[in-house]
């Protein structure tokens, strides 16, 4: 008998998103969260934390290319990069496509996520053991509060603002991120659905302004497996503006990077096409 298995992420009392499941590859409970990796019919292998979609083999390229290449091409010569969260390894994989990057400090809270993804999601986790990657298992909130290191680019690849990730969306965290960036540094964070969480994005933008960032630009992209399907990142920069990058420079470099979504036109176009209701949040 072939069982008809489905996984549903329930968004609220009236909305859920479901996928049909071929197999449950991993199920575990860490100190921080419940972890599952499922094999699904239409989205390939899928990482679920506390019943919430984190990433899928089918659509992960959209998220991981845009969280990495937008900041790394906005900075003219990124060498030292900090990635907070992102335990599946997709962001680290994209960051390492940049030859200028010499060191990636990868601060992830939950070792069980790393181990499960290394075993069951190798397409994403394939670069976690690269010699340029320095994996630090600790809380990113504590890390940025305590470290004296300064980075060119910080990427916050976080889940929803609940549980251990709540503090990754609070005022103090952004002040510490500012402190951990070099004088011309910049950061990008996963900032939820503009359709459902506009108030949260407004708060984030205000905290980033208070922290001292000069350039703050949310950007939008489709994410079929996240609530509402419309998702955002927010870039905050001390100096460099993503609209002022040299397109030829990106064009030359991207040729050898094997991207599926990102290119020099997307780099600027994604900001130029920011919808009015989201732009108003910053103004
Ligand atoms: N792309 C995903 C999304 O938008 O839902 C995020 C994926 S990644 C798996 C998120 C990671 O952040 C998880 O592995 C989780 O363990 C980690 N995390 C949560 N809170 C954290 C914290 N305070 N410090 C460092 N990592 C954290």
Overall strand count: 12
Strand order of the largest sheet: 8-7-6-9-10-12-11
Which ligands, by name, code or SMILES, are bound?
S-adenosylmethionine
Alpha-carbon Rg, integer: 18 Å
Derived structural class: alpha/beta
CATH architecture of the largest domain: 3-Layer(aba) Sandwich
The CATH superfamily name of the largest domain is Vaccinia Virus protein VP39
What does this 3D model show about the protein?
It is a single chain. With 283 residues, this protein is α/β, with parallel strands linked by helices. It folds into two domains: 49 residues, Spermidine synthase, tetramerisation domain (Spermidine Synthase, Chain: A, domain 2), CATH 2.30.140; 223 residues, 3-Layer(aba) Sandwich (Rossmann fold), CATH 3.40.50. 31% of the residues lie in helices and 31% in strands. It is built from ten helices and twelve strands. The protein has a seven-stranded mixed β-sheet with strand order 8-7-6-9-10-12-11, sandwiched between helices. Strands 1-2-3-4-5 form a five-stranded antiparallel β-sheet. A hairpin with a 7-residue loop joins strand 11 and strand 12. The mean pLDDT is 97. It binds S-adenosylmethionine.
């Amino acid at each position: 008998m072939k069982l008809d298995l489905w996984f549903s992420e329930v968004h609220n009392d009236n909305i859920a998103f479901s996928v049909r499941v071929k197999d449950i590859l991993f199920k575990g409970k860490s100190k921080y969260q419940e972890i599952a990796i499922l094999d699904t019919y239409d989205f390939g292998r899928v990482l679920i934390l506390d019943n919430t979609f984190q990433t899928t083999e089918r659509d992960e390229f959209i998220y991981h290319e845009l969280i990495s290449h937008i900041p790394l091409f906005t900075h003219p010569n990124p060498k030292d990069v900090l990635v907070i969260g992102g335990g599946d390894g997709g962001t680290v994989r994209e960051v390492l496509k940049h030859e200028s990057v010499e060191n990636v400090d990868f601060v992830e809270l939950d070792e069980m996520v790393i181990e499960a993804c290394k075993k069951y999601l190798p397409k994403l986790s394939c670069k976690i053991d690269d010699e340029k990657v320095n994996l630090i298992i600790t809380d990113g909130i504590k890390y940025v509060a305590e470290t004296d290191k300064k980075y060119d680019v910080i990427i916050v690849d976080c889940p929803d603002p609940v549980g251990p990730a709540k503090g990754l969306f609070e005022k103090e965290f952004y002040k510490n991120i500012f402190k951990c960036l070099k004088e011309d540094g910049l950061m990008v964070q996963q900032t939820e659905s503009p359709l459902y969480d506009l108030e949260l994005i407004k708060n984030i933008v205000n905290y980033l302004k208070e922290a001292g960032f000069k350039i703050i630009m949310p950007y939008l992209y489709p994410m079929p497996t996240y609530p509402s399907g419309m998702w955002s990142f927010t870039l905050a920069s001390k100096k460099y503006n993503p609209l002022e990058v040299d397109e030829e420079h990106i064009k030359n470099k991207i040729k050898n990077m094997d991207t599926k979504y990102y290119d020099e036109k997307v780099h600027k176009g994604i900001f130029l096409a920011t919808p009015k209701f989201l732009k108003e949040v910053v103004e």
